[in-house]
Amino acid sequence: MVTKPDTKTAMQTLISDIRKAVPFDTPMEKLCDGPCTGCSKKLLDYLDMQLEEKEAELNAGLIPNLGELNRLKKSAMKIHATLIKNGLIKTD
């Protein structure tokens, strides 16, 4: 029987997965190169701020609920899709 992780572990894993999947270190000249659907820089800044906030909450001992996990996941997925449209993330 497989046990599911607690919400703290799930949040840590989600944050780690997002940081791996999203190119936060993209140079500014590449962020604003060509047509955009949404401002990539603002989206990256927003997502990074959200991740830092969640990391600070975890470090302070707060336990996230499933709604918080779901909201962060949805937000990251929408931003990821926009970054694909803007050509910052390549898909196979």
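[next item in queue]
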Amino acid sequence: MRISDTEVKKALSGFTAPEVDVQDENLKVVLGVETDEDASERDAQLVKDLTKQVLDMPDREEMVASLKAKIEAGEYNPSSHDIVDTMIRRAIADRMR
């Protein structure tokens, strides 16, 4: 016997989730019991973490100069894995624009 989407919606229409005292932050997000304040704090921490990661990255000019020097010296030999990885990353980045 097949149960239609309509029948499932009817069955679930009177259902309410029980109140849960959730301590684990990830579980709060999954269960949807996260408050706006919790979400704001989590977002603020995420921004701080990402900002730190970006600031810790080497400067692009230094990276480009290093690659140019390797290419000119004939020492730049990326593996096929590196090339494919870069191609895939570029394709994903292009789709996000």
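[queue empty]
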